[in-house]
Amino acid sequence: MKNNQRFIKDKIISFLPDGDFYRKRAMQAMQREQFSDAEKYYKRALDLNPDDALTHMEYGVFIMEVGRFEDAYELLQTADDLDPNNEETTFYLAEVHAHLGLLREAKQYALKYVGMAPDGVFVEEAHEISEFADQEEMFVEEGEQLDGAVVFMQEKARRMMEQGDFEEAIEVLEDLLVNYPKTWAVHNNLALAYFYIGKEKHAEEILYDVLREEKGNIHALCNLAVFFYYNRDEERLKSMMELLSKIKPYQFEQRYKLGATFALTGRYEEAYHWLRSLQKRGFEGDVGYYFWLANAAYFTGHRKVAEQANEALLKLDPTKEGFEPWKSLDEELDADSYEEDVPFLIEKVSNPYRSERMFGLYLLGKSSHLQEILSHPGYIDVEKLSAAEQLFLAHSLEYSFKASNSFEKALKKALAICDVLYEEYKPLDEEGVQLFQMWFTLCDNALEKKYAFSNVDAIAAAVDYMFQTAHFEKVTKKSIAENYSVSVATLSKYIQELIEFLPQTKD
Known about the structure:
mainly alpha
């Protein structure tokens, strides 16, 4: 018996799957159109064999076919670094560069492939890429093209900044400057990243360094104007805008930057001139372009152009519904009210306390500066907002939501209470702000304790009564109850309920 056991044990073959095993599993999954499984297998293959050029290439081709060109670019570049003589990798590098609009590099790789494999299976496609690059380069303005690696890494940093990953973007841009110290676009983007994390002085220093080297750098001048605007430095902003108004750029990118800067700072006539000039020259805009054109056109009386621009914006990004510029002027706003106080609003939405952020997010919906503050990526990180804060922001953006659980039902009632109180105290002065600060403290505590906010008018009345009795004499329950059309008994009931949610002081 023991001899048999030894025989069986000797015949057992240990199986440890390696990178090649998972690479083949990925290919099988692709053939079965199980794409999520294929990606998992490719990632596992690279974990086990990170220096395998073939896996990098196949994975890169796979995700290029699903439209993830930036990720494919990095994988194919790594494959080429590991095996620079691979014909297929060379061809796919030509293809991915073409998709990314890096035409010069696309042509270089296409011609390199033809030289490596004149009878290769992709030679016809390589010639097509080369011809396409030649045709398109005829329309590229002189000085527009940069090294493909620089363009790609800048785009990567820009996406990081859009997602709020400013520290990571700074690292990418700082690394770029080691090899490309005179690429001013990198300096400009780096300045923006530092500005968005609160290092404003350093951000300005970077831009002034750029201007010392290149006095007329439009992007640096525009970025300084943006910094002055957000910091409410009216004197320096006025001087900068006077300077920018004298500049007459020719390149598309510079006109776009100038027009967007004029629009952000409220100089809509100049903004409309530059942004509209791009459209007349056949410029195919992105989300930002149509957003600013819609605003500039509307505020200069070109309603039809504004509506067309907004329609184009929504086709590119449906989530921008509700950002129409005409929505901010539906009613007259008091310029001295807290709804129009940008530093006050920014302080609220950036406050470390949730109740204060909820107040700020609610008040944004009453301000003509809603779009301006939301367009600044350093103020509000939607992904970091609590569920309650996200719904307060959605309310300000006039998004309707169907309450599907007890929390959302309670929050919907809380928002209705906000609206009742706002109607009573708008536009907000110091007194109104104090009332809302008290209310949002109560509201935040009540949401934590799963309060239902069952009677909207009665709770609004109770909040108003609690606030007024703390600040004024001779306030009666009868007068408050009549103002909100509730009975004194009902008012008293909800006052007692809300007292539970007052902040508790520790002895």
